[in-house]
From TrEMBL, chain A:
GO molecular function: transmembrane transporter activity
Protein name: Biopolymer transporter ExbD
Predominant place of localization: membrane
Membrane topology annotation: Single-pass membrane protein; Single-pass type II membrane protein
Family as reported in the entry's similarity comment: Belongs to the ExbD/TolR family.
UniProt source species: Dawidia soli
Length: 170, 189
């Protein structure tokens, strides 16, 4: 049933016309050329780095009847993100002393670690100014992760803060 | 010379790259993302992507063919624009767009080459006419599992990002992802 009929119908011997024996080697150069062309193409177009994401959770919107939670002002450190990648920061709320720093490892990171050691239960308020860039916001949130800050919030900048930045002249 | 091992390896690599390659969808804007040390990988499905470009325009994308179909139908109902079945089908395979809903119909009916030449004004996010809000609300209705990712350009100004974030918070989306590039060796020793 499943045999392959070999040798044709006739049982004649000798008179068979044999096909000329061909060489089994074929020229593979074009195939290999094409293969390497494809290889180069796919290698150059593949992007391996999958983008990273930073997960952030924002507080729920405060309803009108709710009062915003009150905190001790001694624990509050405010960071204002200004133009040209500057960070203005101050401790406390009444009569603050505004200082300026930047996003380098010796800038904001040192400030954060120092303040965190000095103030128990520090709360950071991050206020990106109107002339700050998106990169500044990502950088400061990243810095929070690096220095392992526990309590921080992204808050809208107030007019008082804008005044403070202007007055500081830094 | 016996080239067999070389050719074998060549084909192995071809197969590997062919299988791992994913076609990158063409996007109307190039976005230069800021970097972070975060190591969470971006999930591949159920993503709603809100792109903020350098010049402060907002673009929108949602994956999933069927979710997109449902999204366009509900959005059409909301704004009183009827989309034909063919238009819905074409929208389902489109990628990122940044147009007010009124201009969307013309854009859907364009060819792929024509679309590239369109100067997209961005999705309106002003408080008077916040269409992004409706895109978000109806996307979440079409696909409950959707995760929201914001892809912002390093140089886009904060007030635009703030508008997008506030739109999200107003719609009770308190958790979202910011897409960044990877950055190495930033942890303090």
């Amino acid at each position: 049933m499943a045999e392959i009929q070999q040798g044709g119908g006739g049982g004649k011997k000798g008179g068979k016309v044999r096909a000329k024996k061909m060489s089994t080697k074929i020229d593979m150069t074009p195939m290999v050329d094409l293969a390497f062309l494809l290889l180069t193409f796919f290698m150059l177009t593949t992007t391996f780095s999958k983008p990273q994401t930073m997960e952030i959770t924002m507080p729920e919107k405060i309803k009108d009847e709710d009062k915003p939670p009150e905190v001790n002002e001694k624990k509050v450190v405010t960071l204002i993100l200004g133009a040209n990648d500057k960070i203005y920061w101050y401790h406390g709320i009444t009569d603050p002393k505004v200082e300026v720093t930047d996003f380098s490892a010796n800038g904001i990171r040192k400030v954060l670690l120092k303040q965190n050691a000095e103030i128990p239960g520090m709360i950071l308020l991050i206020k990106p100014g109107d002339d700050s860039r998106y990169k500044n916001m990502v950088d400061i949130l990243d810095e929070m992760n690096i220095t392992n800050m526990q309590r921080y919030a992204l808050v809208k900048i107030t007019d008082t803060d804008k005044e403070l930045v202007k007055e500081s002249n830094l | 010379m016996d080239m067999t091992p070389l050719v074998d390896l060549g084909f192995l690599l071809v197969t590997f790259f062919m299988l791992t390659a994913t076609a990158r969808p063409d996007e109307p804007v190039t976005v230069d993302m800021p970097s972070s040390v975060s190591e969470i990988k971006m999930p591949e499905t159920d993503i709603m992507l809100i792109t903020v470009s350098k010049d402060g325009k907002v673009y929108f994308n949602l994956d999933g063919k069927y979710t997109r179909q449902e999204l366009l139908r509900t959005m059409g109902e909301r704004y009183g624009i009827s989309f034909s079945d063919q238009e819905v089908a074409r929208f389902a395979v489109m990628s990122t767009f940044g147009l007010p809903i009124g201009n969307l119909k013309d854009y859907i009916n364009m060819g792929p080459e024509e679309r590239k030449n369109v100067n997209q004004p961005g999705i309106p996010v002003d408080s008077a006419n916040n269409q992004l809000k409706d895109w978000i609300v109806f996307s979440r209705m079409a696909n409950q599992k959707v995760r929201i990712a914001i892809k912002g350009d390093s140089d886009s100004s904060y007030p635009v990002v703030e508008k997008v974030v506030n739109t999200l918070i107003d719609n009770k989306v308190n958790r979202f992802n910011l897409i960044t590039n990877m950055e190495m060796n930033k942890k303090p020793s």
